Amino acid sequence: MLKKVAAINDMSGIGKCSLTVAIPILSALKTQCCPYPTAILSSQTGYPKFTYLDFTSYMQEYNRAWKELDVSFDTIYSGFLGSIDQIDIVRDFIKSNDNAYVIVDPVMGDGGDYYQTFNDEICNKIKDLVKISDLVTPNLTEACLLTNNKYHTNYTLEETLDLAKEISALGPKKVIITGILIDGNIINLGYDKENDEYLSYSLKYNNKSYSGTGDIFTSIISGLITNGHDFKDSIKIASDFIFKCIEYTSKYDIDPNDGVFFEVFLNDLTSLNN
């Protein structure tokens, strides 16, 4: 029997991110991805033109239909949430599925700043989700926002570990801070509060950046953790997969908004659970 993952995120027709990557990746990892959309877009917002359908008014009805079917989930994986109302809906959804393992990607910003539609009020509401999660996957900017620390580009591993411990003190047992740049390497740091252990996994940074790699990373983590893979091994597998995708994609002259050619390597994920 496949385990079920409720994947809460937006869906973009063009630009490989959010549910567009979560569905095939979670499926490749032999879990049942159950999409719970927050918005439907013709293309992700990095493009100069896109349409946006806010799904907030349907989310409660969507959840009620699942309840009437008596559906339960092994994992809840929450990504982009576009409003305080959506955060409240997801918080209630998590509380009503109290046996599920909860993974929160606290999507709020990058490069030291909030994304355009985010602010301190929304950040404080995102913290409500972090408090009731088991695992969170912020990038360095989001880690600073969650802990009210000043963002800068010279964080050491020790300082980043302190950020992870501060986030864990809010509630989650496990924290992964992604995209830490140190000495030409890109590092993902995982902290396990229960064992008071951490892992820093480093790969060479090739100065290439593409949309959706964070969504791919957390989708892989979600699928692996759902199927009982080791926390540290999951970080290594997800990091290596992203590195391989970026290396391959960088051979082609494409718009970074298009995302990486992750489809080429899906067999690598499928083989993990054979």
Spell out the key features of this protein.
alpha/beta; two-stranded antiparallel ribbon; 40% helix; UDP-N-acetylmuramoyl-L-alanine:D-glutamate ligase; 9 helices; 274 residues; PM/HMP-P_kinase-1; single chain; kinase; 9-stranded mixed β-sheet
| Corresponding CATH architecture | 3-Layer(aba) Sandwich
- Structural class label: alpha/beta
- Biggest sheet, in brief? 9 strands, mixed
Strand content: 15-25%
What number is the mean pLDDT? 95
Q: What level of helicity do the residues show?
A: 25-40%
Q: What's the Cα radius of gyration? A: 17 Å
GO biological process, one term: pyridoxal 5'-phosphate salvage
Domain Pyridoxamine kinase/Phosphomethylpyrimidine kinase: 70-251
EC number: 2.7.1.35
Pfam families: Phos_pyr_kin
Characterize the structure shown:
By secondary structure, the protein is of the alpha/beta class. It has a single domain (4-268), classed as UDP-N-acetylmuramoyl-L-alanine:D-glutamate ligase (3-Layer(aba) Sandwich). 40% of the residues lie in helices and 24% in strands. It has helices at residues 18-28, 56-68, 84-96, 120-131, 140-147, 157-170, 213-226, 231-249, 266-270, and strands at 4-14, 32-43, 52-54, 75-78, 101-104, 109-110, 113-114, 135-136, 174-182, 185-192, 197-204. The strands form two sheets. It has a nine-stranded mixed β-sheet with strand order 3-2-1-4-5-8-9-10-11, sandwiched between helices. Strands 6-7 form a two-stranded antiparallel sheet. A hairpin with a 4-residue loop joins strand 10 and strand 11. Helix 5 crosses helix 6. The longest helix has 19 residues, at 231-249. The protein is globular. It starts with a strand and ends with a helix. The mean pLDDT is 95.
